[in-house]
Amino acid sequence: MEILIPGLPDVTRALLSILCICLTLIWGINKWNSRHKELLASKFPGPTALPIIGNALTLLNKTQYDLLWTITGLCEEYRSPFKFWLGSKLLIFITKPEDIQIILNSSKTLGKDDVYKFFEAAAGAGLVTAPLEKWKKTRKVLTPSFAPKKITRFVPIMIERATIILQKMQQHCGSGVEVDFYPYFFTASFDTLCEASFGVQVDSQLGRSRDWAQDMFRIAPLLTKRLFAPWLHVDYIYEKTNAAKKMKKFSDDFREFSKNVINERRKHFSKNCGNNNDDMNGDIDCPEYLLDAIHNSQEDSIYTYSDTDKIDEAITFMIAGSETTAQTNCFVLLMLAIHPEYQEKVFEEQYTIFGDADTPITPDDLDKMEYLEQVIKETLRFFPVVPIFARHADEDTKLTQNYVLPAGATAVIFPFFTHYDTELWPEPNKFNPDNFTAEKMANRHKYAFIPFSGGARGCIGNKYSMIAMKTTLSIFIRQFRVSTTKNLEDIEVYLDLVLRCKGGWRMKLERRINQKS
Ligand code: HEM
What we know:
Elements: H1 10-33, H2 35-41, H3 64-78, E1 82-86, E2 89-94, H4 97-105, E3 111-112, H5 117-123, H6 132-142, H7 148-151, H8 155-169, E4 179-180, H9 182-198, H10 213-228, H11 235-238, H12 242-273, H13 292-295, H14 307-338, H15 340-354, H16 363-368, H17 370-382, E5 389-392, E6 397-398, E7 404-405, E8 410-413, H18 415-418, H19 438-442, H20 462-479, E9 480-483, E10 493-496, E11 498-501, E12 506-511
Parallel strand pairs: 2-8
Antiparallel strand pairs: 1-2, 3-5, 4-12, 5-8, 6-7, 9-12, 10-11
Protoporphyrin IX containing FE (HEM) is lined by residues 127-128, 139, 193, 316-317, 320-321, 324-325, 328, 385-386, 389, 451-453, 457, 459-461, 464-465.
């Protein structure tokens, strides 16, 4: 192979020829190594792929507003399961519940995809991104702390934080101005999670520590861009970008913050509880916080965590738990503002439980909030705040209809499409909490509704977040009525790692004059 460009010096020509030969060789070896994957992939429908770049052009220069709809369009056109080549990376999109169930429950697809390594740059190798062996041990260590019985111990913290939201938002009551609820709900959710995880009050709600919401809004678009741009998957190229520098700054700052929080917990723990593990089981002065199992693991002969591991896990939980819960709360209120009839029904339920009394919420009360739970679930169907996630196939995995997900492929699950599939939901574009009556749920495929993913690697915080959301919303709705000038069709969402609402979650606020008004 010789490069024939007139005027080029011989040495340059020779070097270019060698480069071309090397690239052709690498391409040939890759092609040979992935022949099995390509053969199985050829059975799937999907857009025609170009050599080397595959279908990457479909996503090129798409804004965050376009991405969701481009992927939705592909799902509509090719129907699940279908293939999409992002450069040499094979993505198989899976939106049918039967196949989602297989993927989320198979030990062959328990691992996270390579792209999750990008999150490590921000959050470290915590539970969301951890390699399989580390994930298995951490999940085992942490799962007992997330049992509903243990979580209800944190309801008083949730009540306290929700009460601060009321105090802070009181200033907007009756102003007739639509305000963005997100900053109030994010800081509450973040502070609650820090206290429930470590027993440490960071008080970002009261302006006593940094409000991380802005930082998270800044780094999420950088990560989203990297995910869908195959050339930025190459570390060498990515590390030269400004995005990489911003990510590093965020990560360094958040690590420092987490280190201080962990040190606070350590001080408190050794001062009040000594190092006796028995103290951690139920002693009133020394309660067991969500992440204590990791921090106490030093004493355990099987499981040990370095300081770096502990910081990674702290960041992971704060990021995975605070935005998701806060955004869902805001989406719920937005839906109630748009549908006053549902808002009154939620209020009626609260009134039936509490009357005019201002008694603290008990676990029994939470169980009685069935309609509120239906509204939260319908909101999560409409706005799954984690709208897309992926698994890596370690081995060939049989799907329905004789398709086989090839080893090395990425299974992409896209709740944002599944939750609107007309084959599963009779009127998907109508917001209807009755989609989640016990009867309707029993008659629907369990994996038609997957806001928390599912199987062994599903969200560890799902019970925590449901209890936190019910507590916060119960307190809020009993005091305030929300409204908006927007209709459902005006709400625009976009992909920013999580699902965001264009322009924020803006609503008007009115105080209920007395409880039953
Ligand atoms: C409305 C609230 C929430 C939603 C919709 C949600 C959704 C999800 C989803 C879809 C996943 C799977 C992600 C993937 O496979 O890439 C996940 C995983 C995870 N979530 Fe949540 N989450 C919520 C709240 C929380 C909370 C409050 C916490 C912490 C207290 C939390 C901690 C985690 C962790 C640690 C994982 C990784 C689990 C593992 O790999 O074993 N999440 N979440």
